[in-house]
Amino acid sequence: MEGIDGAGKRTLVDGLTSRWRDAGRRVTTMAFPRYGESVHADIAAEALHGAHGDLRSSSYAMAMLFALDRAGAARDIRTALGESDVVLLDRYVASNAAYTAARCGQDAAGDAVEWVAELEFHRFALPVPDHHLLIDVPAEVAMGRAAARGDADATRGRDLYERDNNLQRDVDAVYRQLAQINWLSPWWVLDANLAPSLADDLLTA
Ligand SMILES: Nc1ncnc2c1ncn2[C@@H]1O[C@H](COP(=O)(O)OP(=O)(O)OP(=O)(O)O)[C@@H](O)[C@H]1O
Ligand SMILES: Cc1cn([C@H]2C[C@H](O)[C@@H](COP(=O)(O)O)O2)c(=O)[nH]c1=O
């Protein structure tokens, strides 16, 4: 499940999971970054919240932290694939591709996407997803949701990426390009406003 910050990924993952479980399917969900479970994710979170000075400005360092977090979950993902009907991931490698490409700028975006795929799928041997689900929501709406949530949750607050509206718009554009070319596997673009009924469609697919 992919989309910019505040798009509604967690909400939709939770909704789909309960619908599919109610229908008798074995569903495993995981969310990346694995905050609190992986040292790499926690260092990334510190950087996103303003620690580590220069590190936060390095797209390479951030992408590597997110990739190492996922590499540590590779075995769990494979086990889940063997034991479940559906493995539903709240963000995965495409997040790293989209955010890193957006951070690198248009001229280097293609190289960034290729580098992330090579690193994560080849070097770290993470499984390639069968499908990507992209939440189609106007960037302004998602940014508004992320801002409202950040204001409401004093313990979390908005991180550096969430506060960067230009970055969010650029990430949105990269996601749409990845969906258009069906990067690595078919991409299903979900209209966020139609989420409940789409969940039924997905169930029968
Ligand atoms: N369809 C919707 N309509 C209105 N509000 C929504 C909808 N889906 C989610 N929200 C709200 O928007 C906020 C962000 O949703 P959610 O946490 O699911 O997004 P996310 O994509 O997982 O965000 P992030 O990537 O930043 O963690 C939450 O407060 C949630 O309740
Ligand atoms: C998994 C992952 C995430 N990111 C970015 C996307 C978000 O802005 C932040 C943190 O994620 P959250 O959903 O808001 O908790 O990090 C990334 O750049 N690369 C990744 O692999």
TrEMBL record:
Pfam families: Thymidylate_kin (PF02223)
Keyword Nucleotide-binding: yes
InterPro entries: P-loop_NTPase, Thymidylate_kin-like_dom, Thymidylate_kin_CS
Keywords, alphabetical: ATP-binding, Kinase, Nucleotide biosynthesis, Nucleotide-binding, Transferase
Enzyme Commission number, as recorded: 2.7.4.9
GO molecular function annotations of the record: kinase activity
Residue stretches making up the Thymidylate kinase-like domain: 2-179
Family: Belongs to the thymidylate kinase family.
The protein's name: Thymidylate kinase
Gene name tied to this protein: tmk
